[in-house]
Structure formats: structure tokens, C-alpha cells
């Protein structure tokens, strides 16, 4: 088979559309394209020059351009899987292209994904994607580790997970994403760089270990700095952006402490003068050397995966945290002049009426400067899915965007959804917005105002879903 043209598609839920909201609300009709899919497109483009990626997060798809491709790769997270399947079905109806689905959800549910594609690409794909194309060129049926498919008799062939790639130093070519450079001037789109993969911890609800494994693999510090430099230039050169911030999107950047310090040193030694945000476990807040290095490198915010505010819930899901240690870590982060943002999960067995107000008060009392709220959802392959699958209200993956999707033990699904609305409304109140506008420094004002309007949008979405949730 001759491969002249390859297209990548990232489904959007909902797909991008023009709206004034895109100027100050993230994740309503606009969001950052997938760094992972962009990386795979970059790898393929070295072999197939006519390679392009579409992301419904920032643009419409030019369907005729995709129908004319030889191979189309579709990558999606769980919430976007139904849209990804619809896109795959559409291309198969209108095109002779080989259709391949990959990503986190397809890796967890290969049989489901294979119903909509010629092949499923399991795992990370950095190395297997080229082997896959080589097999097609040779006229072979790809059947090595990392590939799943149905044969003509309807039998699923799943060769299993591939070995994780060791070399992950590919810098994604952001210009391969259709319309991205034009859209990058939006203040709601921050630059993103992913520097490491894998996590040594064992939280029951985390699906990323299934994709990346527990062994931490890292990019070289110099490679990370160069990616940061290119990412900043892509978003900022020739533009006047209000919120200049870059997000290091690693799930656990600090798992390899010495490597993390070396990356921060490389940023400090470079000529990069920028603001950064990053996700972190609470333990980083107790590491003074790391916090000093973060502040010196330009990190103004840590997004802490706090999840719960009671020790019973931590133990329930094998999360190595305690409430008192988290509070101590937050205070120490603030002492180093860094913002602490909180990521919270609703729906633990111990949640009861009043949990929304309790979480909001916890955040306010501990000076947390920004919140991400979502109800727990359950991806096949995780321990929580096996444990709670009989409590699921449905498996409509599009609902897995923060909505309640299961029956908690001591509160009804509708009550729990209301608690999330109460939490958001309590923390992101008009009074707190006014206080921020009057008293906070520049970047804090911008961030709180942006999140305030984003949370208004989220509450509206949660309210629309209330009527679909049982109150028993």
C-alpha cells in the first residue's frame, strides 16, 4: 500500500464554534489541542510529508481533505470517545482511508473502539505508529503488540500492550495542527508542554497508569527547555496576550525528584522569563528546596490534586494523603510566594449533603486560589470501575465531563450534582470576584476573573444535567 497522505483528528465535545465566550471562558467551545496526538503527527510527518492534524477543540474539520487521506488516526479521551466513533464511522462511509483509533479510552476499551475502526492503536504509539505504517506499506496486516482489530469473522485480535517508548524527546510541531497558530492568540489557550510520563503511585481512580505505566520516563532537561521556548514563541510572538502562562501538563512531574530539579535548573539557566503552572501532589509543598527552585524558575502556581478533604476517602482509594498534611503543604507553598490551586473530586462513598459547602470552605480557609471540581467517573481497567460498575447510571461517556455518573452511598446523584453547584457558587461568588478585582495583584485578578466566568459556564452545564439524574 502506498501512503501519500495521513491525517490526524481530535474529536471535540462539543466541537469548536465561534463565540464571544471563547475570549474569556475555557472548555466551553474552545480548548487546547492534544499534545499527545500532536506528538504522533510530528513523528509521522518525518516519514509522510503530507501529514496534518485537525482538532475540533479549535477549528472545524475539512472533511474532503480527510476523505482523500490514505490513513486517518483518531485519538480521544473517554468523554470524547462517542464523538470519535461518529467521526470514524463518517470517514469509513465516505472514504477508502484506513481508520485507526487510539488514545487513553481506546486502550482501556479496545473491543468497543475496534467496532468503529480498521485498527486500534494501544498505548502511547510513539514507536508502534511507524511500525504500523511500515506494515501497511509492505501489504501486511499489522498484528504486533500494540494493535487490536476485528477480523472478517468478527473475532477480536488483541496483541496486548506494547513496551513503553524509552525515547520521548520528540518536540511536537504545533504548526501541523490546522488553524492552531491563528487561534493561539486567544488568552484562554495557554501553551502546554509534557515533560515526563508514568507515575509510581497507585490511586484507584487513575486511568493514566494504564496508559503510561508506573515507571517514570523523562525527557532531557535541554529538550524540555527547547520545547518550552518553541511553545512560548508559537503562542506569543507578534501578539499581545493578557494572560501569558505555560502549563507543564505532566501527571506527576515531581516523581523523579532529581530530574525535576535538573529541569528547573535548566529553565533558570536559560533566558526564558515566563510564568508557569504545573500539577503536583501535595508532598511537593513540604519540599522547601523544590519550592525555592520553582519560584526562581517562574512557577507562580501549583495545581494540587487534593481530591478529598477527609482521611477516610483517601484511604478508600489508596491515596497517600492526609488532610492535615495537605493543609500544612498549602501554607508552605504560600510562604514561598506561589499560588495553590485545588483539584477536587466529588462522589466518594463518604460524601453526604453539605459536602459542597464543606469543600468550598476548606478552599477559602486555606487560601486556595482557584478550584477544579468534578464528580468521579469510572474508566474500564481502573480498580474503581471494577468496584463500582454496578453503581453506574450509564456508560454514556460524553457525560464524563464532571457530571455525576453513579449512585453514591449516602447521597442521591441529583443531590451530589447540586452539591457541586453549591461548592462552585460559594467559592466563585460575586463578592469574592469583587474582592479579587480590588485587592489582588495583576495575574491573580486575571486568573480569578477567568475562572469565575468559566465556573459560571460549568454551573450552567451542571444545572442542565440535573433533570436527567435520579433523586433516589
Please provide a written account of the structure.
The chain is α/β, with parallel strands linked by helices and 472 residues long. It contains 18 helices and 15 strands. The chain has a seven-stranded mixed β-sheet with strand order 2-1-3-4-5-6-7, with helices on both faces. α3 (81-94) links the parallel β3 and β4. α9 packs across α10 and α10 runs parallel beside α11. It starts with a strand and ends in a 6-residue tail after the last helix. 45% of the residues are buried.
Strand order of the largest sheet: 2-1-3-4-5-6-7
- The helicity comes to 25-40%
Overall form: globular
Number of helices: 18
| Model regions low in confidence, pLDDT < 50 over at least 5 residues | none
- Output the radius of gyration: 22 Å
**Largest sheet features:** 7 strands, mixed
Which structural class matches the secondary elements? alpha/beta
- The whole-number mean of residue pLDDT values reads 93
The percent range for strand residues is 5-15%
Q: Ends: how far apart? A: 57 Å
Number of strands: 15
Summarize the model shown.
The chain is an alpha/beta fold and 472 residues long. The chain contains 18 helices and 15 strands.
Helix and strand arrangement:
Layout lengths: L4 E6 L24 H11 L4 E6 L7 H5 L3 E5 L5 H14 L3 E5 L1 H5 L1 H5 L4 E3 L6 H10 L9 E4 L5 E3 L21 H4 L7 E3 L2 E2 L10 H5 L4 E2 L2 H16 L9 E3 L8 H13 L6 E5 L7 H10 L1 E9 L3 H6 L6 H13 L3 E8 L8 H11 L5 E5 L7 H6 L24 H15 L2 H10 L2 H25 L6
Parallel strand pairs: 1-2, 1-3, 3-4, 4-5, 8-11, 11-12, 12-13, 13-14, 14-15
Antiparallel strand pairs: 5-6, 6-7, 9-10
Amino acid at each position: 500500500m502506498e501512503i501519500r497522505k495521513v491525517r490526524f483528528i481530535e474529536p471535540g465535545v462539543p466541537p469548536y464554534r465561534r463565540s464571544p465566550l471563547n475570549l474569556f471562558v475555557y472548555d466551553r467551545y474552545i480548548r487546547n489541542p492534544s499534545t499527545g496526538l500532536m506528538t504522533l503527527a510530528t513523528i509521522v510527518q518525518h516519514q509522510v510529508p503530507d501529514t496534518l492534524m485537525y482538532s475540533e477543540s479549535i477549528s472545524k474539520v475539512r472533511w474532503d481533505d480527510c476523505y482523500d487521506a490514505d490513513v486517518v488516526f483518531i485519538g480521544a479521551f473517554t468523554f470524547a470517545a462517542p464523538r470519535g466513533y461518529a467521526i470514524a464511522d463518517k470517514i469509513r462511509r465516505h472514504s477508502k482511508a484506513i481508520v485507526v483509533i487510539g488514545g487513553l479510552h481506546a486502550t482501556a476499551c479496545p473491543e468497543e473502539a475496534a467496532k468503529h475502526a480498521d485498527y486500534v492503536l494501544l498505548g502511547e504509539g510513539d514507536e508502534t505508529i511507524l511500525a504500523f505504517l511500515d506494515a501497511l506499506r509492505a501489504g501486511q496486516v499489522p498484528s504486533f503488540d500494540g494493535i487490536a482489530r476485528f477480523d472478517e469473522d468478527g473475532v477480536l485480535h488483541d496483541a496486548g500492550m506494547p513496551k513503553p517508548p524509552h525515547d520521548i524527546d520528540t518536540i511536537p510541531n504545533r504548526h501541523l495542527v490546522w488553524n492552531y497558530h491563528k487561534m493561539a492568540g486567544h488568552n484562554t489557550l495557554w501553551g502546554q508542554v509534557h515533560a515526563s510520563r508514568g507515575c509510581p503511585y497507585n490511586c484507584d481512580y487513575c486511568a493514566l497508569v494504564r496508559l503510561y505505566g508506573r515507571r517514570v520516563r523523562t525527557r532531557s532537561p535541554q529538550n524540555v527547555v527547547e520545547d518550552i521556548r518553541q511553545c512560548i514563541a508559537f503562542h506569543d510572538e507578534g501578539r499581545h496576550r493578557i494572560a501569558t502562562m505555560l502549563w507543564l501538563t505532566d501527571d506527576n512531574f515531581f516523581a523523579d525528584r532529581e530530574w525535576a530539579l535538573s529541569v528547573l535548573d535548566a529553565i533558570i539557566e536559560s533566558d526564558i522569563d515566563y510564568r508557569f503552572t504545573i500539577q503536583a501532589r501535595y508532598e511537593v509543598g513540604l519540599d522547601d528546596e523544590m519550592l525555592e527552585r520553582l519560584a526562581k524558575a517562574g512557577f507562580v502556581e501549583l495545581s494540587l490534586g487534593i481530591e478529598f478533604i477527609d482521611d477516610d476517602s483517601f484511604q478508600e482509594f489508596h491515596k497517600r494523603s492526609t488532610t492535615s498534611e495537605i493543609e500544612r503543604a498549602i501554607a508552605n507553598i504560600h510562604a514561598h510566594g506561589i499560588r495553590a490551586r485545588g483539584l477536587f473530586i466529588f462522589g466518594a462513598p463518604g460524601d453526604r449533603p453539605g459536602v459542597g459547602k464543606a469543600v468550598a470552605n476548606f478552599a477559602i480557609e486555606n487560601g486556595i486560589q482557584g478550584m477544579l471540581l468534578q464528580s468521579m467517573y469510572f474508566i474500564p481497567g481502573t480498580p474503581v470501575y471494577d468496584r463500582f460498575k454496578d453503581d453506574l447510571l450509564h456508560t454514556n461517556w460524553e457525560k464524563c465531563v464532571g457530571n455525576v455518573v453513579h449512585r453514591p452511598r449516602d447521597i442521591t446523584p441529583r443531590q451530589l450534582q447540586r452539591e457541586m453547584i453549591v461548592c462552585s457558587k460559594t467559592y466563585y461568588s460575586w463578592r469574592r470576584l469583587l474582592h479579587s478585582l480590588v485587592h489582588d495583584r495583576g495575574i491573580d485578578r486575571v486568573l480569578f476573573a477567568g475562572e469565575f466566568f468559566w465556573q459560571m459556564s460549568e454551573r450552567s452545564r451542571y444545572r442542565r444535567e440535573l433533570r436527567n439524574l435520579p433523586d433516589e
